[in-house]
Automatic annotation (TrEMBL):
Homooctamer. This is Delta-aminolevulinic acid dehydratase. Mg(2+) binds at E230. The active site is at K190, K245. It comes from Marilutibacter maris.
Length: 322
């Protein structure tokens, strides 16, 4: 076996998978304040004003990263129990989408559909008196949120909430609104993961959520067959792309989903995965570039067509440098 590993030329010839800039989606946090605000648990990641977002979009375009995915960070005083600002025409994400599509029409714009940044309780949906997350009432407002993003010009809406039936409802609403080409990237197999911690600080839902959890709607990390049932439903309801989340601890799920359905399949290298690599690198314990590129390549090997990663711009630069 070692003959083929002996030289760089033969290693290159037998290489089965490659990571390219075409595989990358860059998640960004957009706030209603001026300038940039660092997210302490995610070194290198800032919350951005719309003006700063346009600067980042310019870099992404220049690096040929295909798409950004937007997360809104509303001012705390705009949060309500029912998260109505999530579908406001002049909401932060809606304004950001319009600004992006006007300046960089070629850059793909994906929006996150879920209520958690906008609710006082930090849950992705609406609650009943007992604090249980209501399914159908939530689907109704998520549909409004998705529609408001699409009407602002989003190319792709990405529901990350894990309510049942939301993909079908959003697909019908898009058709009815005369937006048949808006794509849906479904967070299909999204696990109730502790690796989302830094993200919740970034969007400001951590404090609201407190000791709360999302176990009644996000998947149990112990399950694998269930991921196939979830993904199959989203495809039947009209998803264009499916996603597995988190990434590295769930490569087995990614492989199963890709093999079972052959769909455009995405994976999210989540905030906690990013934070681990950054922290180890900052301590001099790991080589940041080598470990980040290795993790991203592992997603490709496991079947991903694309990767949502906070390393997207750095990875694009590293790949360009060769
Ligand atoms: N709708 C919430 C949402 N959308 C994306 C992430 C996590 C992303 C990350 O950790 O990088 C989460 C967190 C959660 O479900 O609590
Ligand atoms: Mg589902």
């Amino acid at each position: 076996m070692r003959r083929m590993r002996r030289d760089e030329f033969s290693r290159r010839l037998m290489r089965e998978h490659t990571l390219t800039t075409d595989d990358l989606i860059y998640p960004v946090f957009v706030h209603e304040r001026d300038g940039r605000e660092a997210v302490p648990s995610m070194p290198g990641v800032d919350r951005l004003s719309i003006e700063e977002l346009l600067r980042v979009a310019e870099q992404a375009s220049e690096l040929r990263v295909p798409a950004l995915t937007l997360f809104g960070v509303p001012d705390v005083d705009k949060k309500t129990a029912d998260g109505t600002v999530a579908w406001a025409e002049d909401g932060i994400v809606q304004r950001a989408v319009r600004a992006l599509k006007q300046r960089f029409p070629e850059l793909g714009v994906i929006t996150d559909v879920a209520l958690d940044p906008y609710t006082t309780h930090g849950q992705d949906g609406l609650l009943d008196e007992d604090g249980y997350i209501l399914n159908d009432a939530t689907v109704e407002v998520l549909t409004r949120q998705a529609l408001s993003h699409a009407q602002a010009g989003a190319d792709v809406v990405a529901p990350s909430d894990m309510m049942d039936g939301r993909i079908g409802a959003i697909r019908v609403a898009l058709e009815d609104a005369g937006l048949p080409n808006t794509r849906i990237l479904a967070y299909s197999a999204k696990y109730a993961s502790a690796f989302y911690g830094p993200f919740r600080s970034a969007v400001g839902s951590a404090a609201a959520l407190g000791k709360g959890n999302k176990f009644t709607y996000q998947m149990d990390p112990a399950n694998s067959d269930e991921a196939l049932r979830e993904t199959g439903l989203d495809i039947d309801e009209g998803a264009d792309m499916v996603m597995v989340k988190p990434g590295l601890p769930y490569l087995d799920i990614l492989r199963r989903v890709k093999d079972a359905f052959g769909m455009p399949t995405f994976v999210y290298q989540v905030s906690g995965e990013y934070a681990m690599l950054k922290a180890a690198a900052a301590n001099g314990w790991l080589d940041e570039r080598a470990t980040a590129l290795e993790a991203l390549l592992a997603f490709k090997r496991a079947g991903a067509d694309g990767i949502l990663t906070y390393f997207a711009l750095d990875a694009a630069r590293w790949l360009r440098e060769g």
